[in-house]
Amino acid sequence: MTQWWALLVIGYLSSYHAATRHHRKALYPSAYWIKRGTYSLINPTFQHSLEDINLLFEILLAGMEILGDEHSLLIPDEELASLRSVERLEVICEDILPKKLSDIRRLTADLARWRQPLSWQDFEKTVLALVYTSQMLARITDQHQRKVWMETLIQLFQAVQRDLRPF
């Protein structure tokens, strides 16, 4: 009878341990909320192939801007902006990326405590948050706000740099 209880306890503890490791805190919790009435856009990512990576690079070079308002993605090149695959990038920039300074600072604090390599989805969103923060820094004129945004930008850069280093 003792062996049965020991086996049951070991089974319970191992399943509990696996469940707690599986449900780790998400860096981008809004990525898991249902967006725009479609289940296919839960935790959307833009990069699924080498062509998507090249397209994102081309969009960034074309002068993509992430604004802080409701329609926050502006791509000056109309041809690039009209591509169907850009819809996922719009969802990421408009619905998932943190736009308030307090949310971005929470993200940088979470990234500073993160001890494992970022998933490629989280890495993509962190790089886009870095782009947004740098664009916000360019728009701000108040010196105190500029200093706070600069510190946040440096922390995001350090998180991306730390993730690119081999472990």
Describe it for me?
By secondary structure, this protein is an all-alpha fold. The chain is built from 7 helices and 2 strands. It has helices at 2-22, 50-61, 78-81, 86-96, 101-113, 120-139, 143-164; strands at 65-66, 73-74. It has a two-stranded antiparallel ribbon. A hairpin with a 6-residue loop joins β1 and β2. α5 (101-113) packs parallel to α7 (143-164) and α6 (120-139) packs antiparallel against α7. The termini are far apart. The relative contact order is 0.11. Residues 16-23 have low confidence and may be disordered.
| CA gyration radius, whole angstroms | 20 Å
Q: Calculate the mean pLDDT score and round it.
A: 80
Number of strands: 2
Fraction of residues in β-strands:
under 5%
> Secondary-structure element order, as H and E?
HHEEHHHHH
* Tally of DSSP helical segments: 7
Strand order of the largest sheet: 1-2
Class of secondary structure makeup: mainly alpha
| Helicity range | 55-70%
- Low-confidence spans: 16-23
> Main β-sheet: number of strands, strand sense, barrel status?
2 strands, antiparallel
Tell me the distance between the termini: 46 Å
What would the principal axes of the Cα set say about the shape? globular
List keywords for this structure.
two-stranded antiparallel sheet; 7 helices; globular
Write the layout of secondary structure elements.
Layout lengths: L1 H21 L27 H12 L3 E2 L6 E2 L3 H4 L4 H11 L4 H13 L6 H20 L3 H22 L3
Antiparallel strand pairs: 1-2
Helix pairs in contact: 5-7, 6-7
